[in-house]
């Protein structure tokens, strides 16, 4: 079935059809191709094997006369090159080609797809994974259907693409996570009335979380900021392993790898198991009370309605349903406490001063490091010795600023990956703030030469503006003239000693 119609733009023809996969490839003398701007093939073996499992389940149905729908594909017909370039859908087309190869021993005709070396490695890994599974029969592959939108104009093709992907149609990973965990509440064993009430309560909590003021990134929805920049990294950046927190890994971490209710005998629809941490010595699980309070079972203590006080840890197992929403709520509240609480305690107020006067004059990727580590630290030690932590960490990040005129995105990952120990691991595994502060002080000594030998002109360029901010900060704090960053380490120690003597920020 197909339709053809002209757009308002002269000579711009749009063809819409529903085609079997093989027919898509053979529907024209012009083969399918990839343009140079396209990202590579990024599907991992897990996604390919999941597709095979889904198709195998379809094959086991008693009636397979209905086709198996694989979504839409957007193509641009280029008359100059006599090719149909894939604008949207190349991941699925490549994946289906690999399934076809596994089923028939050959690649489907009608394509001129070429890939980078990185894509070729992903394809080889995918083929190896498919060899471990039973092949999908050619009869099932013949039942695969795609909606194909084909246009002649490049501008029109990208108008379609932008509309589909950038104007609210595509869901964020966090939107999918919300839906999954609300369904998990509905599927759990329990009274219908209780499940409905919990779903409403968790949906309201999530919507409140989404409206939180931004931290680092501006935006109307705080949830993607929270999960992409903070929770994913805090959980997955370990040792030298710092993977990218893209759409699929986020879903894997916070959906597929969360624990179902049957995984722990303490888990119920309204109760979440707790684990022994610095903030939890007694309770075995936590129940969400009808009035919004949290009741710690085993100790029968109420901890009020402030999610920042929940006895959870960043790297603990996450339990689906209520557990997921409480986990997200806690760390959203901790970030807000650090950056946006209208009535901060003295320690947090000092932390904000350090951030505003020193970090705001630094590059955003360095601010990401600072806030990620600070969240991890406050989760572990609350605000104990927070001023010392913030200043010692800032000392390390400032050295990076002085060494690099341009700070790239991978700098954040390299900060953890290339050090002798990953600071996030050090924080998570420490029992006392002194262990973290000693580690930072040791690293200070290793980067002190960056300050001793700097020749940056004060106020000129990004490095000069950072230098001026440091000089003004310490001059204001120490009430003495500060001229050269070579003395920054000494200023830092003098300031912290004065804080300790005055019990200021401690």
TrEMBL record:
Annotated signal peptide: none
Residues in GmrSD restriction endonucleases N-terminal domain copies: 32-181
Boundaries of every DUF7834 domain copy: 199-447
Top-level taxon of origin: Bacteria
Protein name in UniProt: DUF262 domain-containing protein
InterPro entries for the chain: DUF7834, GmrSD_N
Organism name: Pseudomonas triticicola
